[in-house]
Amino acid sequence: MEHLQYIIVGAGPAGLQMAYFMERAGHRYSVLEAAPVPGAFFQTQPRHRMLLSLNKRFNGFPEQEFNMRHDWNSLLSEEGSPLFRDYSEDLYPKADDYVRYLADFAVQHQLRIRYNTRVASITRDAQGLFVISDADGNQWSCDRVIMGTGACAPFMPSDIDGIECAAGYEDHDIDPALYENKTVLIIGRGNSAFEVANHLAGRAAIIHVAIGNRPIQLAWETHFAGHVRSINNTMLEMFHVKALHGALGLCVRKLRRTDDGGYDVVAEEEVPHWREPGMLELQLHYDHVIRCTGFKYVTPELFGDELRPESCKKNKYPVLDSAWQSSVPELYYVGTSMGVRDKQAASSFIHGFRYNIRALFRLLEHRYHGKELPHTEYPLQSASDLEQLASALLERLSNTAALYQQFGVLCDVLVFEDGRCTVFHELPVAYVLEQARFSSHANIIVVNFEYGFKQYPQGTNPLSFITQSDEASSRRCAAFLHPAFRHYRNGQLVEEDNLGDSLTLRYSRHRVHNVMQTHEPMTDDVERNTVMNIINRASNTTSEVFSETVHLVNHAFRPWPKDRPLDTRGLPRCPISEPEAAE
Description:
- This protein has 13 helices and 23 strands.
- The chain is α/β, with parallel strands linked by helices.
- The protein has 3 domains: 2-152 and 296-369, FAD/NAD(P)-binding domain (3-Layer(bba) Sandwich), CATH 3.50.50.60; 163-291, 3-Layer(bba) Sandwich (FAD/NAD(P)-binding domain); 375-582, no CATH class.
- Strand 1, helix 1 and strand 2 form a beta-alpha-beta unit.
């Protein structure tokens, strides 16, 4: 039986990404893939063959790292090749192009993949090694297993009697002629449900999307790419302009096929806002019912009872710790399943989990192979040292794609000791706050990106943020993505501060000078001085305080005309008081 250090199960984008790092490190590993090609999921999914991942090829800046912020499809490599931008010019590319890209990535980097190898069981022997068996009886042993299996099977809601008789998103007939002048019920509340509805909107007579008893979450409101995207909003628009189709608060309870080939449906609708709160039970009939309830990302049947990893509620995802390890020691999950710990950033998507996988690989190198976590050291004994460190941080914050895409999930950590600052790069925030190496340290600063909409009153319309923030308080009131700094002393949070938001998230000399910037240049030192003060308060490097005053030039600001009524309706107001802003 061949023994390996690592076995990666699945050659989708997550498995390929981890295999790339393993190959470069020279580890003994193998990828076991059931299909004859990598990325086989994308041969059939998404069903209508258009990806929701952006392929924004032109961004106005030369740095490849910055441009990866807007390339949601490419995998990471030191060589920077291949890049998906060379496979499609479409902003929303075709799935077939992605299949070609993944195949080329695997070949170009000579990844060790065993195709046509379907894993049948994963057990442990008496020595504690994993034993992997495939459907043909072949076996391998390994020290650690990394599950990159992605979407394993459709998720079937257990609370809908007869759900198995509905057509499934993953294989329903997509011929629009089949649905002409028919009534269609789509069960689901995510992008797959609205993708199907968009496809049928011009052919079906009436489409109802049963979204359940919670409002729809829209990506442009929540800033989470997994919520309903604007490109799938046709159904919502038609609903609100009274064009027959609609998204309804139906909770489907029962389905039954009828002799005419249609479906009888029993559904409930909650009406807690009625004068007499209650529940409605509805008896409905549709010509077609399509289930769009997502996928499962765990395969418990692969594991023996003593080795079966714990699953989350509904058994859709594995339970993972802050380093993406399952409840089974040395069994890790990569890919969309990493999103179980992240409902704000992009861990469920390629442009997010590629950075999680790089962070996990570095943690594995540290834990099992004695490699130090990636870091950079800076002297910190004078004001000039402060300036050098602040400038380096601004340079990084202006370009990093990892912290940008994985806002609130990945961070850089500044550790202060003995007249120097050590900056650790791209660690999981939760991991940092759990590890004694960091949490028990006298002074650290955790740096990550985050949104600030939560500090505004609930229900504030994100589309109302159309003007610049009040200069007197813009840092405190930053709503869009911006860098945040948190100072911890012996594990206790002692201070929070941040830089203001910007259209491009480029700071200091990286700032874009164009017609959208009324106060350009702000002064080349404002953001650098802000960061110097933040670091200095944690490190006590100098007694000097550096000016953070914003100087508007070219008479950009003029007082409001006295003869013009002041109308601020619909515009968000900074939620902190003016004295706080002045501080």
